[in-house]
Amino acid sequence: MKSSIHRDTLGAILELATAPHESAMLVVGEPGSGKSRLLASVEPIPGIEIFRVRINPAEAGFPLSGLSAFVASFQTPAAAALSSELLIPGEADAQLAARAAELLALIRDFTPETTLLLIDDLDLMDLPSQTVFAMVAARLGGTGLRLVGTVCAEPPVGPLASLPRITLDRLTFAESMLLATELLGPQSDEALRRMLASSSSGSPSEIARNARLLTSRHLGNAAPVALPFRASRAPSTRTSQEPDDQHLLLAMLSCSYLSSQDPIRQSGDPIRGALEELLSAGTVIRDGRYLRISDSALRSHLYWSIDAGTRAEFHARAARSEDAPGGDPGLAAWHRSWADAGSLSSDELLASAAEFGRRGLIWQSVELAERALALALDATGSPEALLEVAEALYLQGELSYAARYARLGQRRPGSIATVTKLATLRSGIEFMSTHQLLTTDLDDWVGPRGASGRAEDLARLLGMSALSHAERWEVDAAREALARGRHLLESATPESIELHELSALLLSALEGDPGPSTRMFERLSRHGWTEETSARALSVLGRSLTFIDRYGDARRVLRTVVGLEPPPDPIVLQTARYYLAENEILAGNQFEAMAIIESLTGSGTEQVHRRPLQLLTAWYWQARGDRARADAAIELCNRSFATSDHPALAARLVADQGRFALMEGRFDDAIAFLHRAGAIGSAFRNPSLLRSQVDLIEAYVLSGRLREAVIQFREFRARARPFHTRWTVLATARAEALLTPGEASIAVFEQAAGLWQPGDSQFEQGRTLLSFADRLVSLGHGREGADQYLAARMIFTQLGAIPWARKADAVRLGTHAPSVNPLLATLAPDERLVAELVQQGKRNKEIAAELFVSLRTVEVRLTRTYNKLGAKSRSHLIALLSGTGTVLSDGAASGMV
């Protein structure tokens, strides 16, 4: 069942359909909640026949007509005959029990062994049919039939009241976005899709209805959208014929998304009383200093049910109220645009939209912007005004809306300065959203066309470009952008100069020079964080400290940004939290990293750093050990960023896959992934990729491919030379210990473990101890190895690296014997562990569960063990390990499977 919405309810239907016992269930959902769509989304289930019935409400006056349709759905001659017979008038009350018995007999005799019957609008059946249905639903044992019916409301009384039910909740915003994407297409403007999702209150029918209102001009971004979306009249709305106070207040509030509460509270007692009742019922909610109708779809229906004259009167009254003390000038402008359109210019409305955007009132900002574009009283909104709106929404992290208004601004003629600023903003939006750069805009405005532009604007564009290239690990491109902008800095503003300085800071860290980042951190530590140090500067400093492996210092800086009061702009705050998540991953603090990722990806519709967050999500599920979700997240990454467009992200994705494959003992997979990471990242000078090379060395060693491990180690030392960090020291020592053969490796491992100092990566220390334990056990030092496994496990558990802790614990459990079987000493650690569990009498499935690996992984390890030891079978392997069997010669063993 692959529907993008109502996944939990679809899962419940699948569980009912495949349960060992027959049962029935009601799905309760309000009109427009997507009940019909839900049943249509139930996909074929192997071994189960699925039938669907749609109840016709026009037949509700005919007794047993609903039951007749129910019976006819089985599509057999006997069912057709009974369906016709049910339509013959008779004594309905006397018929019911008999009809239920006939129906049960029919089901037993003529339905397939396992059948799922889906009935839409079950509560629209006539009452006698509902009675028979309820009787049958309670007697399904032995029929093979599972029943699912949808109803519009909880049935407090009546035949259906006793049936189990689940409620079809409104769509989440993420689900609403998925549905909007299905309706408009994935290539449609994301801003339009967000408008649909934001105005639907989670109702699929509202999303579908509003989508039908969009024309080809809307979809081509050639026309503004009329907001709120136009809805049909609500029959129950009574605003023109002496409405009650609550309804009158709702009608007034529907005229804008937000309304200032002070003018309303200063109204007469009846209105104040109506407001308190609506607040208590949750129909209206307080939102800061404002009031708003909680249900966007209700607001739309209320607004468009008011006749045009009354709407104009309400707008005029609201404009006067918002102009009064306690009101909002921006809302006054909104209402005047409806009551007296000629009194305002588009730019005045756009200025109000920008102000709402800066205050984080996004939907009010969007409604005002679309209204300004619709009026176009002075031909068009100026590019300067659209730029102001786009910049405000960008700083709020609303990238899709910011992109919409920036694009519209670029379509209008404007000064070179404005056009350059729009190009800069568009490039920033594109990078923060997709991790890509609009290089054509950069070339256009820094090339010949940009020669006459203001130096400040060009300097800012080049500084932003350099910082973005650095984030993509494109050091040469970043250096080029800084060089092109250097001569412009003499007349640039402090903000543009800071951009260039921060780009240079990040580049130095990427190239292995810790000096600039260290000096800036120490200066700020001595003198404290000052107001002169922007939140953006602190974020980039934290990022640079991560690249030079000073994770504790980076954590301190980035947590400072996250805890600033007042908070920085949302886009800066989100960036700092994203940087902090990556810092904790590299530091090995997986508990912290997972908590941050959960907070960053909670909505499912993230706009800022969308591609990197997809990468973090894939890491998250791998770290949790959830293979199914990890595979789905990895597949999404593969679809979202191709290697040619996002080489840095692609390299990190396969490097993560390689590390987790190494942890799980899938050495061949690990080598393949890590080789690919090296191939993709060979063009980058980034210390993060050195980790994958150390992992590759370990994978080669554990696979017995020492020659290739040595080649990788030599290359690693050459690449690591420019990066003088504590991590490179620890990683080099661990790699040397891994490559040292025999008993001599014990002293090298002890030396590597002894290098660790407070402030160094505890995760790296755990990796060293785990490798040390593997080596000790392979050399026959079982008890000493057990101690190292325990130490590694304690470190991993403290960090929240649960799969690594499980690995250390699982291996440790097999190492308490006073001596190690010489045959086991010839096996790799992962093979040895499987062999020991086989010796304990455990089956493959039990071994897979204990080691937290797949059944296939156990089978592969066992096959390698058979080949190495010459075992003919499982029992022969046990005999060999017990000392009662005979080891085959290499020649005899070579043919074993």
From TrEMBL:
SUPFAM superfamilies: C-terminal effector domain of the bipartite response regulators (SSF46894), P-loop containing nucleoside triphosphate hydrolases (SSF52540), TPR-like (SSF48452). InterPro entries: P-loop_NTPase, Sig_transdc_resp-reg_C-effctor, TPR-like_helical_dom_sf, Tscrpt_reg_LuxR_C, WH-like_DNA-bd_sf. The keyword Transcription regulation applies. Residues 820-885 form the HTH luxR-type domain. It comes from the Bacteria. Keywords: DNA-binding, Transcription, Transcription regulation. PANTHER family: DNA-BINDING TRANSCRIPTIONAL ACTIVATOR DEVR_DOSR. This is HTH luxR-type domain-containing protein. It comes from Cryobacterium glucosi.
